[in-house]
Amino acid sequence: MLNIILCGAPGSGKGTQSGYIAEKYGLKHLSTGDVLRAEIAKGSELGKKIDALISEGNLVPDDMMYGVIENYIASLPQDCKGTIFDGYPRTVSQAESLTELLKKYGMEAIMIDLLVDEQLLIQRLIERGKMSGRADDNLNTIRHRIAVYHNQTEPIAHYYLHHGNYCPVNGNHAVEDVFLQIKRIIENYGR
Predict the structure, then answer these.
(1) CA–CA separation, 4 vs 19, rounded Å?
(2) Quick check: helix, strand or coil at residue 17?
């Protein structure tokens, strides 16, 4: 089973590349936002707790996220080819938990890190904001989101590098060229 943790700063192209990867390799795309909403919709005890936290504007704690991710992994069909983790893990402690959880199910994951120059990230996000009208794609918010990424999420790259399953990708290129780099990584994985 092929499990990919797709990482990168806001504007690095994670959503676009996730779509290409899922289509080409038949992988499930796990968006943590979608999974949290599904857990809430189930009306489970966990879902009720998550709903209460989110409705108050709070983040879901690591232990609850672990429960949600474990429920997702446990429910994968036998013929599942793998998962693209999008939006999880976001911290080193979440990366450690995910590694242990995957081991529990006899799985592992590679991290594909989309590396993009900061000026290009800003340019992409401003352009996206003009096209989509997203309120969070303004210069001040963009700079804050990139800073949060550098402080909280970027350190997971070192975690996966240390564990030998870190794969950097130059995301400064056209979408198709970035996908070619990702395809090479996936097709050489496990050889």
Answers:
(1) 13
(2) helix
- pLDDT tens per residue, range 78-100: 999 999 998 789 889 999 999 99
By the 8 A CB rule, do 52 and 106 touch?
A: no
Q: What is the mean pLDDT of residues 7-34?
A: 91
Measured distance CA(133)–CA(12) in Å, rounded? 18
Contact 99, 107 (CB under 8 A): no
Report the distance separating Cα 25 and Cα 84, nearest Å: 10
Largest CA distance in the chain: 47
Structure tokens at 85: 């983790």
What's the one-letter identity of residue 29? H
Distance CA 48, CA 96 (A): 26
**43 dihedral zone (left: phi>0; alpha: psi -120 to 50; beta):** left
Q: Tell me the whole-structure pTM to 2 decimals.
A: 0.86
Distance of alpha carbon 86 from alpha carbon 114, whole angstroms: 12
